[in-house]
UniProtKB/TrEMBL annotation:
Keywords for this protein: Aminotransferase, Pyridoxal phosphate, Transferase
PANTHER family with a match to the protein in the record: CYSTATHIONINE GAMMA-LYASE, TRANS-SULFURATION ENZYME FAMILY MEMBER
Protein name in UniProt: Aminotransferase class I/II-fold pyridoxal phosphate-dependent enzyme
UniProt modified residues of type N6-(pyridoxal phosphate)lysine: 198
Biological process, per Gene Ontology: cysteine biosynthetic process via cystathionine; transsulfuration
Classification via SUPFAM superfamilies: PLP-dependent transferases
Cofactor: pyridoxal 5'-phosphate
Molecular function GO terms recorded: cystathionine gamma-lyase activity; pyridoxal phosphate binding; transaminase activity
Highest rank taxon of the organism: Bacteria
GO cellular component assignments: cytoplasm
Length: 374
């Protein structure tokens, strides 16, 4: 029987290339997968929310790079954060750093508190303060090292130990350093999260998140949440993240080298009161950075301008090679007046500028600050 036009339009566009061998993985946009006559599915791909080739590639890759057994990809860093927090139960308590990616605090206040999760914020550089903040129902200690935006460091080994002594999990948000510079699981952390929007993607053109861990039981919980909530990345987004991973090491090595040089320049400038960068000897936890980090100190820094909020903001707008925008980790340099982005609850100093250093030539970047500050 010859199919009619409408039927032909469908059948003639079917994928029939089962024997091609592309070097770069194709983007498998299909939302669903054909079942074999015996009831099985090739490679167990059934439905794209549950799993698909592009997602599987980056999950396996990120697990390996973070030295973990399991990785799960999400549609954004925040959906990865949410998945971890949804694995807790009503009544549980979480300890957050005082300096933290602001949206996580907002998620607690607006969504998780009404569901019965509570939190406290402590200065995690102070282990005694952290120990004092642990309650009988503390289920999780959340770590950002370096923290956003003040680049405070936490001792992952010590915090994990303290967490485990109190039957809590230690979660590390490793977005700012990437596994090139820091592997939290090696220091005893239970779970690592990433906003892959940042360095993994690396080109400011895709959103994504990832959760990495070793424990089989927690992994199966996270997997259920991933598949049932459905905050999964699209195949094209996974493809972009996978492509970013291929150049991650090259990009962040250059970015970190540039950041270090810029930090040293800014530290000497009279208009700059303080530079927060763990690579500098003046950073209060420089030695911890040396012990906990490899291959460099990362490409994020923040500075306190010797002046008012308005002066700090104005300087950011005078820069030519640093775009005034939120986010970080792309190949292009960005600058942000963080407090005005975070809003009225912000604990960030109002003369702070957050800087994400890109891969441009360092002499241009320094000259740009020279003209903006003078
Ligand atoms: C950006 C960011 C997040 C949130 O990730 P999204 O991809 O924007 O949802 C979480 N933690 C840190 C440290 C971040 O920088």
């Amino acid at each position: 029987m010859k199919p009619k036009f409408e039927t032909l339009a469908i059948k003639s566009t079917e994928n029939t290339f089962s024997d091609v061998n592309p070097v770069s993985i194709p983007i498998y946009l299909s939302s669903t997968y054909k079942r074999n006559a015996n009831g099985t599915y090739n490679n167990d791909f059934v439905y794209s929310r549950n799993d698909n080739p592009n997602r599987q590639v980056i999950e396996k890759s990120i697990a390996k790079l973070e030295n973990g057994r399991y990785a799960f990809a999400f549609s954004s860093g925040m959906s990865a954060v949410s998945a971890i927090l949804q694995s807790l139960k009503t009544g549980d308590h979480v300890i957050l750093p005082d300096d933290i990616y602001f949206t996580i605090k907002k998620l607690f206040n607006e969504v998780l508190k009404p569901w019965g999760l509570s939190y406290s914020q402590v200065d995690m550089t102070d282990l005694q303060a952290l120990e004092n903040a642990i309650k009988p129902n503390t289920a999780m200690i959340w770590v950002e090292t370096p923290s956003n935006p003040q680049l405070k460091l936490s001792d992952i080994k010590a915090v994990s130990k303290l967490a485990h002594k109190n039957n809590a999990l230690c979660v590390v948000d490793n977005t700012w350093l990437t596994p090139v510079f820091q592997n939290p699981l090696n220091f005893g952390a239970d779970i690592v999260i990433h906003s892959t929007t940042k360095y993994f993607g690396g080109h400011s053109d895709v959103l994504g998140g990832a959760v990495v861990l070793d424990d089989e039981k927690i992994a199966s919980k996270i997997k259920s949440i991933q598949q049932l909530n459905g905050a999964v990345p699209a195949p094209f987004d996974c493809w972009l993240i996978g492509r970013g991973i291929q150049t991650l090491h090259l990009r962040v090595s250059k970015q970190s080298e540039n950041a270090f040089k810029l930090a040293k320049y800014l530290e000497k400038h009279p208009k700059v009161k303080q530079v927060n960068y763990p690579g500098l000897k003046s950073h209060p936890q420089h030695n911890l950075a040396i012990n906990q980090q490899d291959n460099g100190f990362g490409a994020m820094l923040s500075i306190l301008i010797d002046g008012t909020k308005e002066e700090a903001f104005k300087i950011s707008t005078k820069l030519a090679y640093f775009t005034t925008a939120t986010s970080l980790g792309g190949v292009e340099s960005l600058v942000e007046h963080r407090q005005s982005v975070e809003g009225p609850d912000s604990l960030t100093p109002n003369n702070l500028l957050r800087i994400s250093v890109g891969i441009e030539h360092i002499e241009d970047l320094i000259a740009d600050w020279e003209q903006a500050l003078n």
